[in-house]
Amino acid sequence: MPERADPLGDPDDAARLLAASLARAADADPTPREAAVGLFRRHLARMQQSVRDDFEAHRVAGEAAACRLSELTDGVIRTLYDFTFSDALVELAPFADGLAVAATGGYGRGTLAPFSDIDLLFLTDDDPPPALLGAVEFMLYFLWDLGLKVGHATRSVRECIDEAADDTTVRTTLLDARRIAGDETLFAGFQARYIVACVEAGPANFIADKQRERSVRHGRYGESPFLVEPNIKEGRGGLRDMQTLYWLCRYTLGIRHFMELAAPRDISPGTGEASRPSGLPGGGLLTDQEANRARRCWDFLWTVRFHLHYIAGRAEERLTFDMQPVVGARMGYTRHGRQVGVERFMRHYFLNAREVMRLTHVLEPAVLRAVLGPPAVAPEADADLLEAGFVLADGQILPGPGVSFEAQPIAMLRMLLLARDRNLLIHPLAMHALIRWERRAAELRGDAEANRILISLVCGERPVRRPMDEDARREARHAEDPRSGARWLHVLNETGLLGRLIPPWSRIVGQMQFDTYHVFTVDEHTIEAVRILGTLEAGLLAEETPVANDLVLDLQSRRALYLATLMHDIAKGRGGDHSELGSEMALELCPMLGLSAEETETVSWLVLHHLLLSQTAFRRDIDDPKTILDIADTIQSPERLRLLLILTVVDMRAVSPKVWNNWKATLLRELYTRVAEVLAGGLATAERDVRVLRAKEAAALVMAEDGLDRADIDRFLDLGYGGYWLSFDPETHARHARMIRDSELRDAPLTVETQPLPARAVTEVTVYAPDHAGLFSRIAGALAMAGASIVDARIHTMTNGMALDTFWVQDASDDTFDAPHRLARLSVLVEQALSGRIDLGDEIAKLSRTALGRRMRAIHVPPRVVIDNRASNTHTVIEVNGRDRPGLLHDVTGAMNRQGLQIASAHITTYGVRAVDVFYVKDVFGLKIGNERKLDEIREALLLVLRQAEEAVVSPAPVPVRRRGASVSG
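Structure tokens predicted for Bifunctional uridylyltransferase/uridylyl-removing enzyme:
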């Protein structure tokens, strides 16, 4: 059977149906009001249900449903008007010619949401009789009894004109006034007078008022369009923003639909501005593609709004978490791979919101230019600015004549850099041009100048810390620094340039996580993290994050930290571990952006581990020593720990203002402190003192059981510093005591003791000798010559000036280095190395050329040296990162020795082919190295050693000798 036609499908038919029902009820007498209300109410319910059924069956979309609901409501209002004067208040029929009922606001435009107010204007002559006002009152009460929300005003023509002149809100409401019923002549006269009044008032004030209203509204509902619970009507990128654009075009150009703005056009050179063809008011201000996007955004937002109203059963405009999955499912968004339907829906919403923002940047300046004329270019622009191809208008930068972003896409980035450096705002016409031609930015990928500018914009300028009181600090904390990276990232993101320059970025624009933890989309969260990093650098978070506040001062890897912050979530929404995927992406993106190999690896590592500290601090027992040791084993170096702590702080604070609190700050601070002390070879002072005392007591007990007398025990207990007692167990302490006693009894200048430890698959090599410059380097070289792979090492200087150095070594097969002849040779080589009877440099060079194979060559380890004078009050800390190879420790420490450095303590580790060695050093006078020139010399000397290790990779060789996990303190 054919589907039965909906009797309410045609608005005119629906109105006639209601009128016929009223006529049947009246018979020969006036219809009682209560009966009429019942008839209207039933008709209204059927009418609304008809629209809902068609909408939810996807027979009509949002805008079409809004138009149909508006048309059906028109029929109800017309029928009520007729009922009022022909039936209920027939005695007032003579006054009907002095009244017109008009729809205003959104209803006047012919769109109506299911539970929105019905805005009505009861238009009268200048002096309406009281009886006519009684008819208005009757209609209003009738509509209220139907359960409708009516926004109403009763004004004469003169009052409308006067109030519109004084109040932009009234003037806006009347822009789309549309007669529904009543006196046509009266309404036509009002329209004529209103148009004349608008022309006389001019567009300037109206435009300024609407822009001011929008700014206030954004401040109230959120400046970002990417809040994860957006207000689809009032929020940025929502319906009201599109309506504001419509009002500007309607008031200034007389258009009624965005599609009227598209027409064949000529493009003006420079800004890409479309000239308006004659005879087409507003035609050509948008391209066909832009106009179609505007139409799709309008329809999408209306569709979401209809679903919201129907689900909530009221005029709900906020897309809250409980609404999002329901709306998404009703709109057909389902799981795709690992991304759930609600996240796909919300990403589509946010992309629409961004499109509305972009449309604003494109259309609004075009309207202003079409209506008010081109901006007046300031003649006082300096020569450098003019030479660069840019001018100023109203104090804002825009491309000058002859500069085309289409032909010169690099000019887009140059303009942004100039705006940043000169603290200039970007002219709306310039924003228009950036959006129009953003696709051309794809040509700049890999361009050296583009990379330099982009990274400069992202990192911003290093802020200068200035003293300020708490009130000023609080205000500065929430204000956006015009030179900060976040401000320019917002511009790059809104215009689409960032997604063109960094393609994976476009995948996270509008990407959200469906949880109540994050309040921003991924892209907005990332930009917020960059903003907080700049705030931290400026010293504005000293009280909330004191440790990070101090660490950020002298970072060696500032660019890497900013790029890691930019990329830490860049792989979200792709399925899998976003940290691992993002780390791999960073390895591809960073070289494309012009970062060095060392910076690339740092960024990749930070992205991979950016959740490590927060997850450990909040989910693990940080009082468990193993937890701290596991973290230290992953982080490997103090510089990485500093970078990771700062990234953790900014990442957490960028999630939501509610996420960060003093408790979490305390946990992170404690974790950082404990890990830092492990990497430095020690523990906290209070805990350290207790443990040192306990270690001495335990060692004394074991030594007494071994037969040492009290004098020998007391003497030995006085030899070691705190770090020594915490580095070994009591049995090892007792063994060292016997070795030192025997060495002193023999008056031996050198004692080398080896002890295989099969349970640990290592051999322990202990060297007791007079401490002198280069001792560590020579022993390390001798072990390399012996074919021993150092897997751990601890070096201590005793109070008697002797060095007690312990190394744990393996053979090339990762087994115990225990062959008697090899142990004997090892001892001989150590003795020869310390006595100077062999040339370690030549021997190690030969060894390096034959010990590096294909496995080593497959992995690139960029050399890196970080020198930090803030990590210690008494020492300069040098962190060396590079490729491991036989003799690396010998070469690195030898270079330090040649630079006149005394190694007070060290932490030496190797992870696979990476060596990460940290040294605490002083100069020959026992002081920190403060001379910058000297620091540069040290850095270059160490880098030379590391580069030589990397160059040695080109030589084919058998399996490499490895060194792993050595921690040294003294």
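Confidence is low (pLDDT under 50) at residues 1-5, 264-282, 956-970.
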